[in-house]
Each structure stands twice: as structure tokens, then as C-alpha cells.
Amino acid sequence: MDFFEQQDKARGLTGYLFLLFGFAVVCIIISIFCLVSFAVGFERDLAALAWTFELAVISSVGTVIAVFIASAIRISWLSQGGKVIAESMGGQRLSQNTKDPLSRQVLNVVEEMAIASGTPVPPVYLMEEQGINAFAAGYSPRDAVIGVTRGCATKLNRDQLQGVMAHEFSHILNGDMRINIRLTGIIFGIVFLSSIGRILTNIAYVSGGRRRNGKDSGGGALVILGIGLLIIGGIGGFFGAMIRASISRQREFLADASAVQFTRNPDGIAGALKRIGGYSHGSKLKSAGAQEFSHMFFSSGISSMFATHPPLPIRIKRIDPNWKNTYPNTDKISATASQSSQVVGASGFTESADSVPLSQNQAPAQSWSNRQERPQSAQTFLKSEGKIDNEKLAQVRSLIASIPASLVEQAKEPFGARCLLFALLLDNKNLEARKRQVQMIENQAEEGTFNQTEKIEPFLTNLSCEQKLILVEESRPAIAELSKNQFSVFQKLIVQLIGADESIDLFEWCLHKVIEFDFGKQHYPRQLHGRASIRSRISDCAVILGALSHYGQEGADPKPAFKKGIQALDRSGQIKLPASQDCGLSSMDKAIERLNKMSASEKRSLIDACARTIDHDGKTTDIEIQILRGIACALSCPLGPNL
Prior knowledge:
Elements: H1 3-40, H2 53-78, H3 82-88, E1 92-93, H4 101-117, E2 124-127, E3 134-137, E4 145-149, H5 150-155, H6 158-173, H7 176-212, H8 220-263, H9 266-277, H10 312-319, H11 339-342, H12 378-383, H13 390-401, H14 405-411, H15 414-425, H16 431-444, H17 449-460, H18 465-474, H19 476-479, H20 484-498, H21 506-519, H22 538-552, H23 559-566, H24 585-595, H25 600-615, H26 622-634
Parallel strand pairs: 2-4
Antiparallel strand pairs: 1-2, 3-4
Helix pairs in contact: 1-2, 1-7, 1-8, 1-25, 2-7, 4-6, 4-13, 6-8, 6-9, 7-8, 9-10, 14-15, 15-17, 15-20, 16-20, 20-21, 21-26, 22-23, 22-24, 22-25, 23-25, 25-26
């Protein structure tokens, strides 16, 4: 499955949704005009206005404004990130350092899925609900969260939990979360008319009392308007629920299929669905927000005539055609965590010989810029993306376990995570630059930051480039806990540390983009993808390919490498290699800003062209793969680790 293509399809589905919404609003406008005309006919002073063009304009504008404002406010609230949705349903965020075996298992499974797919590791919220359910919420992969019920954590084994998480991650990768938020906002806007009707009815009731006391006259129009709006809003909500249900059911089928493809283990997600069927609590939720967000869950959280999920038997049969229509007795299953999760330490993996105190020194080895030869080409690496099977997850698990536990523990909390990232940027070759970096940290960071950074630094010297990137990934949730002011100071200091030697290489630029685009997601939200084509952004593509060509050829002529990449985007032969000074980091910043307005599939084409450029000299290196991942991250098209 090409997830970039799926995101574009999701955008097309959103456009279809808005078309239906527009049609619904037109019907509502006409209905309200008829209602208002009928109502004002009861008032002598206003009767002449009934069924006129002027009243049509007034009622139409008023209806559009009311529905649009209500929808916009709701969507704006939901677009703050999945955190607000999780908290509105009573979810409590799980600490990254928890030692509870069940919570640890959930966090480990989510972490492995995120790293394997290249998406930011999302925060995980636990809901104290007995039903077996889960959800993914957020406006984009950058602000996504995963919600899990207590029943899901206690009644599913590790493989089944992994299947559920794969289902939720497919919603993230397929762009379903944005559709879900817009669905919720649109329906809220339509149903809001009923709220207006209820208000008018209450006003009419009060004015009716005054009328009986001889203090007021009229009020018939308000009664008609109030009751009419209640009916229109109810009918609008009825059809809105139908639209939501039909779209949601199809997206659930897609997510189930994606989960099987991710894990290569149909028994995982099928087993989870079977346990829901054999459980007295099923997947039902008691939260007040379950009704509004029912379409976001793994399985139906409420009983409704407009079910947002296909029936369990149909979902199971699609995954397991040989199913005998029997369910296990889930009520008798006790809460257990898998052996692999029970033996993990606070950092989330088995303690190894490398897990030593931070005061111990280690001999320096490779740095960020070491160029390790790899037999795998960049294009082969891209072809392996989107396939998250058991073997890949085992490799991710092994890669995490190969990192000293003390480093992972540092990445789990905000202060340690910042020190860890500062330590990754300390210059061990240029003493003058290092002195400047030390001064920057001591002057701008919290007291004790440099001391801790200095303790962490020796542990990084023996790590591979991929292990360092894993640590960067691990630090995301902790950095997300910073306030906007704290993050602003942190981001500014990162930029200064990178530029301390007065020369920023391409890898440092990519690292900065990861921090800028992913770490600041909750403070500086930006649109995920646009609609622009490569043709309209070809000069910006040339800047990125030009930088890769000048950077990766080690003194050789960069033109052939550039030609190899640009031909994949433009066969006219008119696009020439930009001069090296026109491919600097500031030029790349401007290019990335414009390239982010392209569609997801067009971005994928650019990433493929970058891989072709990198592979031209036949010496694809580990650092070049990481640069490719950095560019992909800056384009909101994340790539997983090079395994």
C-alpha cells in the first residue's frame, strides 16, 4: 500500500464530504427561508416581508454564518491536537517512565510501531473503561495521540494489542484523523441549529408568560421558529450521521486491511475483534464524549442505528475467512503482560551490558558525519517502507535494546531529553566552536544543563548514526511537554549550537528540520500537505537535488547525479544544476517551505528523485540515508529507520 497515495485519496474523500455538506447546507437554507417566511406571516408588522427576496438573503446569510461559525469553532478546538479529545473522554497520559507491566507493554508496542513507520512517537492515554477499545486522534501525525481503554490493555495479548495499534496507526498514515475531525465539526455545525431552536423556544415560553400578564405581545413567530429549527437541526443531524457512518465504515475496512499488511499477522487484529465479541462489556464506552467521537474508535463505542463501524462478524470474516462464528469467553481472561514486557526496565527494554552509570567514560568513536558504507541503496530503502512486519518490529526492538538504558531514560523526561539533544550537537573536533557551545548552554539553558550534557556525551560516541536518530525519536514525547516559551528557548539554542562552528553541514540541517517540524508540532502547527504539483515547484526541487548532488559526490562532477534525479521529475532537459552557492541551507529552507504545499504523492515523487540522486555514485552511505529521512520529515512524509 502506498500511504502517500492514500493520503491524497483521503483528501479527495474530504472534498466529497464538503460537497455533501454544501448540498446539505443549501437544503437547510431553503428550509429555513420557508420556515422564517411562514413565521413572520403571523406578525402583522412583518407579514409584508414573507416570501420576499430580501428575507431570502437575510435568512440565507444568517444560516450560513451560524453553521459556519459553529463548525469552525468546533474544528478549531479539535485541531489543537489529539490531546484535547483524549482528555475530554477522561484519558490519563501514561508516563514514559512507568514501571507498571501493562502500561509498559502498551507504550512499548506504540513506540515500536511509530519508529518502524517513521512517524513521531505519539503520547498514549489510558481510559478507565472496561470495554475493549482504542482510538487515534489528532489533526496530523505530528499532533496525534493514541487512546487505549483499560479493558484493551488487560484483555488482549501482545499480538492482539499490536494488531489494534497497527489499525490505529493506519488511521494516522492514511489521513483519516483529519477527516474524522472535520466530520465531527461539520455535524456539530448542522446540529447547532437545534440548539438555536431550543433557545428560541425557551424565549417564546418566557415571553408567553409576560403576554399572559399583559406585559408583552406577539411571540407566535418565536414559537414557530424555535420548533422549526429544532426539527431542521434534527433532520440535518440525521443525514449528517448517515454521511459519517458510511464514510467511517469504509475507512475501518481500509484500516483493518492496513493492520494486516503492517504486522503480517492477521491473527492479531482478528483475535482482538473476536475477544470483543466474546466479552460482556464488548467495546462499549461510558464516557460522555463517546457519542460525538464514536467514529474514531477501533470498534463501535456506542449502540446506534447509524453504526460507524461494520458489524464484528463481517470485519472478522474479511480477515479470517475460515472463522467458525464462535467467540472466546473473554470475561475469564485475566490481566497479563507478555514476557518481553515484564522483563523490561524503566526505559522500556531489557537491561544490557552497555547499561552503565552516566559517570563512566567511553572512548570516542564515530561522529554524525562518519560516512559508513551500506550495501543497501536509497531506492531499495524506499521500497521497504510501509511494510511493518514482525521481522521489522523485532529489528526495531533490537535496535532500541542496543542503546544504553541510561540514555533512553534521559530521553524520557524533558530536562534529560534537552541535555541529550544538546550532547548530540557538541563539537569534538573544533575546540573554539566547542567553547562557544559550552558558553551558549551555560548562558541560556537551565542551571545544571551543561553538567548533565557533559555526562551524557561520552555515551554517544560509540553509537551508530541510526541509534542516535532513535534517541532523537525517543525524546519527542518529553520535548512535547515543554511550554511554548521553553520550547522557543530550546529551539533557538539548538540553532545556535548547530551554527557554532560557522558551517552547517547537510545532516545538521536535516536534524534541525526534524526538531523544527516534529518537535514543535503543538506550538507551531502547519498544514500537512497542499495541492501544488511538481511542475509548479520544479525550481525548488532543483535546489534540493542540487544540494544532494554537490554534497554527496566527494569531489566528482555533480551534474550526472543531478541529471539522474531531475529526469525522474522533468524529462524536458531544461532544468540545469544550480550553482553550489544557490543550494545553500537558507535556499533549502525557502525551497522546503514552498515544497510543503505540494500534494503527498508529489512529495513522494520528489523523495524518490532524491534517492536516485544519492544512489548515482554507487556509494550510498548511512549518513546519506539519514539525510534522505531528514528531507522526508521536513516534507511531512516520514520514513522509518534503515534496518
